[in-house]
């Protein structure tokens, strides 16, 4: 059995996003039930590493000033593990591969993010296609150095093998969520704290980036009696606030919520809306499901797998506003039935279920 793991990641605490949350949750639960999972990550001002956490010197990441870019080194004192698991293909991930090869241990790599879909948000139009080709070439080279790649959904696996063209062995292992935390919760204290109405509430929490297409959610509630509640923040927020003001839709911007508030946030919603077409898993949709809240999602990316049509919500053709509104109406009309089915899915969504699968992957690469 692989008892000890060293995770190398460019995204970790105190950063708030899906990768950082997954690594932190895996570390906690692996250590609770199996062995130890050390983490190597870029140092961030104000965060003091705990035992088993190793920070490397870092600088502000180009194009993404909220993130840090660590030096591609393994700090002194990191114990040699049974398996190295790299979670990102950037500098700290490269350091993880080097560390594994220098110490003769196998490498597992996670494919968390579809890089080529983010290019259009960062470069001028003439450079989009060359930029995407460059991303795919880099990913092919990086993941070829791993003994196994784990992907969170079958969609991500198809994308990696077919679109990126990676020649790797890829195994689907959902990131899983903390179902101890994410469960149906009394929403009234949160409703009162933020002054949310009793009428139909639709909502989203997470990054406010152009790729999330949250303006479509604003347009979908325009002209209805629905309230849209957007938690989180990001570079698109100013434009989203302007869009809401132009339409006159009832949109509430809550900013970042404390993680402890999220179960109540999901529970207060009648439906969670997720118009992003570029998710590799979409953990927030799974968190909403675990809280008994059905999801209305774009029929694209990992949400094709993550939102079960007619069971945990409804999907619609990306960019089709009328189809989006119809999916919302169906979800609200069937709210009680869908909520019950969401609750029945909780065991399959748990991180414990995911770590059982991950343990089998670790064992395979050690043989």
TrEMBL record:
<dbReference type="InterPro" id="IPR028098">
    <property type="entry name" value="Glyco_trans_4-like_N"/>
</dbReference>
<dbReference type="GO" id="GO:0016757">
    <property type="term" value="F:glycosyltransferase activity"/>
</dbReference>
<feature type="domain" description="Glycosyl transferase family 1">
    <location>
        <begin position="194"/>
        <end position="340"/>
    </location>
</feature>
<dbReference type="Pfam" id="PF00534">
    <property type="entry name" value="Glycos_transf_1"/>
</dbReference>
<dbReference type="InterPro" id="IPR001296">
    <property type="entry name" value="Glyco_trans_1"/>
</dbReference>
<dbReference type="InterPro" id="IPR050194">
    <property type="entry name" value="Glycosyltransferase_grp1"/>
</dbReference>
<protein>
    <submittedName>
        <fullName>Group 1 glycosyl transferase</fullName>
    </submittedName>
</protein>
<keyword id="KW-0808">Transferase</keyword>
<feature type="domain" description="Glycosyltransferase subfamily 4-like N-terminal">
    <location>
        <begin position="16"/>
        <end position="181"/>
    </location>
</feature>
<dbReference type="Pfam" id="PF13439">
    <property type="entry name" value="Glyco_transf_4"/>
</dbReference>
